[in-house]
Amino acid sequence: MTVIIVHQKLVSPEEVKVTSLVAIIYFFMSVGPSIAYLLGDRIYFGIRVDKMDEALLVSVLGLSALFMANALYLSLRGSAVPASYRFVPGDNVIRITGAVLLGTSLIMFTLMLLNLHKFNLDKVSKVQSVAFIHYKLMLLWMAAFVVYFANKWEVDRVLLISFGVFTAYCMLFSERDFVFILLAMLFVHLKSRILNQRLFLFGVPGAMLLTKLTAGRGEIFEGSTISAFFNQGSNLFVNSFVIELVEEKGYPLQWGKTYLSSLLDSIS
C-alpha cells in the first residue's frame, strides 16, 4: 500500500492508471495459486507448498522494485519530456525487426499447418512435436515486437499480420502469451481511459475467456472454474522451485546470474 501511495505522488495520473493496472495483473498472477490453495482447491503440482511463503515474498519484492523503479524514472525525467516511452525512430531498426516479425510469423504459420491435426490434444503433447524451436521462436517474436513497437509506436500492417499469426499459433499450442502483447498495445493507446467503467465490461469477459483458454494445459484447469481462474500465474512455481534448489539441493547461488543467463538464452 505504501508503494502505491508513493508512486501516485511521484507520477502523473495517466501513468498511475497504467502502472497500477499492470501491478494488479502481476500481483494476481503471483498470488492467485495461493488463494486457490487457501480455498482448498487444487494448485499446480510443481508449486512447493512448504516454500510458498518465501515464493510470495520474492514476488512482492520483485513487484515493489519494478514499481519503484518506474516511479523513480518518471519523477526524474522532468515535465519537459513527453509522457511517452517512445525511442528515437530508426529506419534500419524498424526494417530489421519488421523482417524478423514477418520471418518468425512465416515459420509459425508453417508449424501450424503441420500440426493442425493435434488441436484437441493436451498442451504437452502438442508442444513436444515442436519443442526444439517452440519457445525460442516465441521469445524471438516477442523481442522483435517490443523493439519494433517501441520505434514505430503505432499499429501498422506488419504488426497486425504478425500479431494475428502469433495469436493463432498461441491458441493452437495452448499458450496465452498473446494476451500480454494485446494488453501492452491497449495500455499504450488507452492510457488516460484505461481505468473506467468500460474496463470491467471488457475485463470480466476477458478474464473468463482467458480461463477458458487454459483448457488442455493440465488437470487443475479441467476442474472448477475457480481453480482454473486462480491458477493462471506460474510465478509461484518458478520461485518455489528455485528456492528449493538452493536451500535443499545445494545448488550454488550466484547473484545476478539469472539475468545474465536470460540475456544469453534470448540471444542464442
Overall pLDDT, averaged?
Answer: 71
Low-confidence stretches: 1-11, 79-87, 215-221
Can you give the helix content as a percent range? 55-70%
- Based on CA atoms alone, the radius of gyration comes out at 20 Å
Strand percentage: under 5%
Number of domains: 2
Oligomer: single chain
Task: Count every beta strand, where a strand is a DSSP E run of 2 or more residues.
Answer: 0
What string, H for helix and E for strand, traces the elements in order? HHHHHHHHHHHH
State the shape. globular
The class by helix and strand makeup works out as: mainly alpha
Q: Number of helical segments?
A: 12
The profile of the biggest β sheet is: none
First and last CA, distance? 40 Å
Describe the structure.
By secondary structure, this protein is mainly α. The chain has 2 domains: 152 residues, no CATH class; 103 residues. The protein is built from 12 helices and no strands. It is globular and about 50 Å long. The N terminus is likely disordered.
